[in-house]
Specification:
Blueprint: H1 3-13, H2 20-25, H3 30-42, H4 44-55, E1 64-69, E2 72-77, E3 80-81, H5 83-96, E4 100-105, E5 111-115, H6 116-132, E6 140-144, H7 149-161, E7 164-167, H8 174-184, E8 188-192, E9 194-197, E10 200-203, H9 205-212, E11 221-225, E12 238-240, H10 241-246, E13 257-258, E14 262-268, E15 276-281, H11 282-296, E16 304-307, H12 314-327, E17 330-334, H13 345-353, E18 357-360, H14 362-371, H15 374-377, E19 386-390, H16 396-406, E20 412-416, E21 449-452, E22 465-469, E23 479-480, H17 484-492, E24 504-508, E25 514-519, E26 523-526, E27 529-532, H18 533-541, E28 546-556, E29 560-569, H19 577-590, E30 599-602, H20 616-624
Parallel strand pairs: 4-17, 6-7, 6-8, 7-14, 8-11, 11-12, 16-17, 16-18, 18-19, 19-20, 29-30
Antiparallel strand pairs: 1-2, 3-13, 4-5, 9-10, 14-15, 15-23, 21-22, 22-24, 24-25, 26-27, 28-29
Helix pairs in contact: 3-4, 5-6, 5-12, 6-7, 8-9, 11-12, 14-16
Bound molecules: 5'-O-[(S)-ethoxy(hydroxy)phosphoryl]adenosine.
GO molecular function: acetate-CoA ligase activity; AMP binding; ATP binding
GO cellular component, one term: cytosol
Family: Belongs to the ATP-dependent AMP-binding enzyme family.
C-alpha cells in the first residue's frame, strides 16, 4: 500500500469527538439520540405520532399514523394540516412576528431582510393573487427564478392554497424547462428578469420565452419579477409580480389540506430516460424536515443558519424553505457565486452576520481549499458551531480542511446523506455524536439502513455493497409524476424484499458508520448536481454531426466528477476542435451549463453488449486505466 493510501485510511479511522462549544448547546446528547433512535425503530408509529403532535399544528388529528399498501404508503391518514401555518402563522402568533426569517444578500453586498410577520403578509398577498389568476388546489405552477425572497414567497403562496409547485433550477436551459412545464402541465410560470453571477447579468425571461415557444399550451399566464422597475414591455399573457400582489389583501386563510395531499414536484435525474417528477406530500414531509432541521443542525432559538444551496434543488426546498421556517429560525440566503467578487465572500458573510450553522457541498469546500487557507483566515469565524456537508461524498482531506480552517477545530461536521426522493436527511451523525471524516455516519430516526449484496444478503463490515432502506419513512417520495412504474421500481429492485434502493454504493463499519462511495447506476454527480448520462447522451445525439454518443464521469479535483463524452460522428463530418466547441455549445443550449462535457473524444466505435447496450463501465475502466472486469457480454 502506498504512503498516500495509508494516510487516508488513518484519517478515516480517526474519530473526532464533538467539541465543547457544540456539547454546551446540543439539543440531544449522544445517549438521548441513541434512545430515541431505538424507540423510532421499535415503534415507528408511536414515535412519529408523538413528535407530530408535539412539534406541528394540525387542524384535525390523523385517524391512522401509517398504512403500507406495498409499494404505496401513507402517513398521518385523515390528518388535516397546512405547512405554511406551521412555517409562518404559528410563529407570528407566538411572539416571533418581528424575528427575521431571511437575510438575503447579493454579490454587490446589497441586503434585504424580512421578518416572519412581513413574510406572512407577502405570502398571503401572493396566495390571493394566485387565486385571482384562477389557480386552485391541485393545479401546478412552475417557478424558474433565482435565489430571492420573492422565489420563496411564491413557493409558500402555492402551499398556502394547495397549488403544487415545481421549481426548476434557474441554470437549466429552455429545453429542460419546457420538458418540466409540459410534463407537469403547469398553468402559470413564475420567473425573474435576470440573475447575476460573477458580476454578469443572466437573462432568465428570455429562457422562459424560448421554452414557451413550443409544446406549452397548458400555460395561461407568465408572472415576472422585474428586478429593475419597468424593465419589460409586458405582453398580453404576462403580469408584473409586484403589480399583481400590491392590490391584494394581506390576509388569506390557509387552505385546510389533507396530510397526503401533494406539496410539490421536483424533477431529478435517473439512470435512464427523462428526469422523474418526484412527488412529496405535506404531512410527513413537514414533520420529517422539521425534525431533521432541528436535531441535525442543533438549531437553538437565537441561531443564525445558512444553507448555501439554491432553492432549485431539494436541499433548498427542505433546508432553506420548509425545515428552517417550520422550526422558526433565521436564515441567510446569498444569490450569486461563492467566490465573487473575491474568495473571501462567504467568510465575510459568516463574520458579518455571526452565522452559527453553515451547510454547504464538498465541491465548494474543495474550491476554497484550492484558493488556500489564507482566505478564511482573514475573517472571524468564531460564531460557527455546526458545519454541514451534502450532495456527494466528502473526501477525508476536504473534511479535515473544513474542520480545521472553517470550523477552527471547534465545530462538529454533519455529513448528511440523502436524496431528492428521501425528502430529508437519512444518514448523518448529529452534532453531539463522534464523527469520522468521509463517513456520513448513522441512520437518523426511523431509518433502518443496511449495506447488502445484489440479492439483499447482509455483508461483513467494511465490504462494499448496495445501500438499502428497509421501511418507508414520513418524507419518502409518494410517486413519480405520471409514471408510477418508475416509483415502484425504487421498492422492487431487490427481489423478495420490500426495500428502498437508493442506487448508491456504500460500506458499513464495525460501529455501524456508513460511508457512501458514490452512485451504483449511470447517474453523474458534477459539483453535487445530479445529471443522467442518458440526458447528456440524448442532447449530444440531437446535434446534426453526432451519430452515437456515450458519456462517463471522471474523478475531478473540485467538481467531484467531470463529464467525458465519446462520440461517433456521422460519416459526412470531420473531427475538429471547432466541432467539439460547437457540440459543447449545443449541450449547453439543450440542458444548461452544468451538463456540458469537459472533454470530448471522437471515436470510431463504442463498446457494446451483443444486445447493443453501450458498456459505459468499459469506457470508464479504459479511460482511468482500471481493470476491464467482466467483458464476456462485450460484442467484440
Ligand atoms: C449523493 C441531494 C455522499 C448520493 C441531497 C445521492 C451524497 C445523490 C451525499 C442524491 C453525502 C448526497 N455523501 N453522497 N452526504 N448527499 N449524495 O437527489 O449519490 O440531488 O444518491 O439530493 O447525491 O442527489 P440529490
Amino acid at each position: 500500500m502506498s504512503k498516500k493510501v495509508d494516510e487516508v485510511l488513518l484519517k478515516i479511522n480517526k474519530v473526532y469527538n464533538p467539541p465543547k462549544k457544540v456539547l454546551e448547546k446540543a439539543l440531544l446528547t449522544k445517549e438521548q439520540f441513541d434512545d430515541m433512535y431505538k424507540k423510532s425503530i421499535e415503534d415507528p408509529e408511536g414515535f412519529w405520532a408523538e413528535l407530530a403532535e408535539k412539534e406541528l399544528h394540525w387542524y384535525k388529528k390523523w385517524d391512522k399514523v401509517f398504512e403500507w399498501n406495498f409499494p404505496y404508503y401513507k402517513w398521518f391518514i385523515g390528518g388535516k394540516i397546512n405547512i405554511t401555518y406551521n412555517c409562518l402563522d404559528r410563529h407570528v402568533q407566538n411572539g416571533k412576528r418581528n424575528k427575521l426569517a431571511y437575510i438575503w444578500v447579493d454579490e454587490d453586498g446589497i441586503e434585504k431582510k424580512i421578518t416572519y410577520g412581513e413574510l406572512l403578509e407577502l405570502v398571503n398577498k401572493t396566495a390571493n393573487a394566485l387565486k385571482e389568476l384562477g389557480l386552485k388546489k391541485g393545479d401546478r405552477v412552475v417557478i424558474y427564478m433565482p435565489l430571492t425572497i420573492e422565489q420563496i414567497v411564491i413557493m409558500l403562496a402555492c402551499a398556502r392554497i394547495g397549488v403544487i409547485h415545481s421549481v426548476v433550477f434557474a441554470g437549466f436551459s429552455a429545453n429542460a424547462l419546457r420538458m418540466r412545464i409540459s410534463d407537469a402541465e403547469a398553468k402559470v410560470v413564475f420567473t425573474s428578469t435576470w440573475t447575476k453571477r460573477r458580476g454578469k447579468k443572466i437573462n432568465l425571461k428570455s429562457v422562459v420565452d424560448e421554452a414557451l415557444a413550443q409544446e406549452c399550451d397548458c400555460v395561461e399566464k407568465v408572472v415576472i419579477h422585474q428586478r429593475d422597475k419597468g424593465e419589460l414591455e409586458l405582453q398580453e399573457n404576462e403580469l408584473d409580480f409586484y403589480e399583481l400582489i400590491e392590490k391584494q389583501s394581506p390576509n388569506c386563510e390557509p387552505e385546510i389540506m389533507d396530510a397526503e395531499d401533494p406539496l410539490f414536484i421536483l424533477y431529478t435525474s435517473g439512470s435512464t430516460g427523462k428526469p422523474k417528477g418526484v412527488l412529496h406530500t405535506i404531512g410527513g414531509y413537514n414533520l420529517y424536515t422539521h425534525i431533521t432541521t432541528k436535531y441535525v443542525f442543533d438549531i437553538n432559538e437565537d441561531d443564525i443558519y445558512w444553507c448555501t444551496a439554491d432553492t432549485g434543488w431539494i436541499t433548498g426546498h427542505s433546508y432553506i424553505v420548509y425545515g428552517p421556517l417550520s422550526v422558526g429560525t433565521t436564515s441567510i440566503i446569498a444569490e450569486g457565486a461563492p467566490d465573487y467578487p473575491d474568495p473571501g465572500r462567504w467568510w465575510s458573510i459568516v463574520e458579518k452576520y455571526r452565522v452559527n450553522i453553515f451547510y454547504t457541498a464538498p465541491t465548494a469546500v474543495r474550491l476554497f481549499m484550492k484558493y488556500g487557507e489564507e482566505w478564511p483566515a482573514k475573517y472571524d469565524l468564531s460564531s460557527l458551531r455546526v458545519l454541514g456537508s451534502v450532495g456527494e461524498p466528502i473526501n477525508p482531506e476536504a473534511w479535515i480542511w473544513y474542520y480545521e480552517n472553517i470550523g477552527r477545530k471547534q465545530c462538529s461536521i454533519v455529513d448528511t446523506w440523502w436524496q431528492t426522493e428521501t425528502g430529508g436527511h437519512m444518514i448523518t451523525t448529529i452534532p453531539s455524536y463522534p464523527q469520522k471524516p468521509g463517513k456520513a455516519g448513522k441512520p437518523f430516526f426511523g431509518i433502518e439502513a443496511d449495506v447488502v449484496d445484489e440479492e439483499g444478503n447482509p455483508l461483513p463490515p467494511n465490504a462494499e455493497g448496495y445501500l438499502v432502506i428497509k421501511k418507508p419513512w414520513p418524507s419518502a417520495l409518494r410517486t413519480c409524476w405520471g409514471e408510477p412504474e418508475r416509483f415502484e421500481k425504487y421498492w422492487t429492485q431487490i427481489k423478495g424484499k420490500q426495500w428502498y434502493l437508493p442506487e448508491d454504493v456504500a460500506t458499513k463499519d464495525e460501529d455501524g458508520y456508513i460511508m457512501i462511495l458514490g452512485r451504483a447506476d449511470d447517474v453523474l454527480n458534477v459539483s453535487g448536481h445530479r445529471i443522467g448520462t442518458a440526458e447528456v447522451e440524448s442532447a449530444l445525439v440531437s446535434h446534426p454531426a453526432v451519430a452515437e454518443a456515450a458519456v462517463i464521469g471522471k474523478p475531478h479535483e473540485i467538481k467531484g466528477q467531470s463529464i467525458k463524452a465519446f462520440i461517433i460522428l456521422k460519416t459526412s463530418y470531420e473531427p475538429s476542435e471547432e466541432l467539439k466547441k460547437e457540440i459543447k455549445e449545443h449541450v449547453k443550449h439543450e440542458l444548461g451549463p452544468i451538463a456540458v462535457p469537459d472533454e470530448i473524444e471522437f471515436v470510431e466505435k463504442l463498446p457494446k453488449t451483443r444486445s447493443g447496450k453501450i458498456m459505459r463501465r468499459v469506457l470508464r475502466a479504459k479511460e482511468l486505466g482500471l481493470p476491464l472486469g467482466d467483458t464476456s457480454t462485450l460484442e467484440d
